[in-house]
Amino acid sequence: MTWEQRWHPLRREWVVVAAHRQNRPWNTEQLNRSERVLPEYVSDCYLCPRNLRVSGARNADYAGVFVFDNDHPCVGPEAPTQLVAPPGIYRSRPATGIARVVCYTPRHDLSLAELDVASIVALMEVWQEQYRELSARAEVRHVLVFENRGEAVGVSNPHPHCQIYATNFVFKGMEVELDAERAHLEETGRVLFQDILAAERADGRRWLVENAGAVAFLPYFARYAYDAIVCPKATHPSIAELSPGELRDLAAALHGLLVRFDNLWQMPFPYVLALHQAPTDGADYRHHHFHIQIHPPLRKPNLLKYLAGPEVGAGGFISDTAPEDKAAELRAVPAVHYRSGR
Ligand SMILES: [Zn+2]
Ligand SMILES: [Zn+2]
After folding, report:
1. Which ligand approaches the C-alpha of residue 45 most closely?
2. From the DSSP assignment, how many helices (H) and strands (E) are in the chain?
3. Catalytic, out of 108, 159, 161, 295
4. pTM greater than 0.85
5. pLDDT tens digit string along 279-288?
6. Please, which residues have CB less than 5 A from ligand 1, an ion?
7. Helix segments in 204-307, DSSP class H
8. How far is CA 330 from CA 70, 206, 223, 227, 325, in A?
9. Is 35 exposed, middle or buried (0-12, 13-18, 19+ CB in 10 A)?
């Protein structure tokens, strides 16, 4: 039984690990476990090739990865710039930036976990191009690439895709992480993430996938039950700096992790995935080690980790599971996707 507090070095906060609570009585509704068989093409899907989108634009007859500007942008070049000044201490600023959508494949019925490694490499090359292009814009200070997968995290269209928010600000969670990394370098002369990798390697129990250039693991300080990190072994501030070999190894590590997630309960494993990259505001971020963080919201099949009193009410996190146990579960499942060969 694990019952203790663990320090989250990237968020600079304590996580309460109370693993004895995982089997407490649970009477509220569970998510529907439904795995629909999807067609390869859907005529009214706004992400499938050749289809008309709500903006009136038509998707290309694409064969690989397809990028377009989001028709419902949260930040955009058209956001109002003449704002009414709020009263007193309140402040506002324009919501300018660029929001894009990246379709992974023309196949409506696939998912990132079901793409082969070569297709994930092709996707990661697009992530590199997007980071380079968007970071060159003066108004862009940060490029957030993220994927929401599954209805559990609010996604209604299963067509495999991610989004890019190129914003005129750096998101708070990234700012905290970057500050922690900078402080660690100043105090110790070492890259924080390399110390995390060394500690994980020394322990070994949460280590899931490793190849020549990349690794995947559940960190000691996991907040969600299956919180995972996928990263190159070498320190690079963003994905754009990775060599072709490192990119291939990163794709293979991500693939290995996502296949195990899907195989765990033989269902598409919902998650929020985010690339943690250095801001693009011109400052020095050599202390930042680019990584992909994956936050699956389930702690059991069809059972969500609800964010409640401590999480929403106070900004802390109670974990009902120990990542050592969850990593052991993932290591025990096959490395070949359960739907392959169908
Ligand atoms: Zn589609
Ligand atoms: Zn991070």
Report:
1. 1
2. 6, 14
3. 161
4. yes
5. 999 999 999 9
6. 42, 45, 47-48, 108, 159
7. 244-264
8. 35, 10, 17, 12, 9
9. exposed
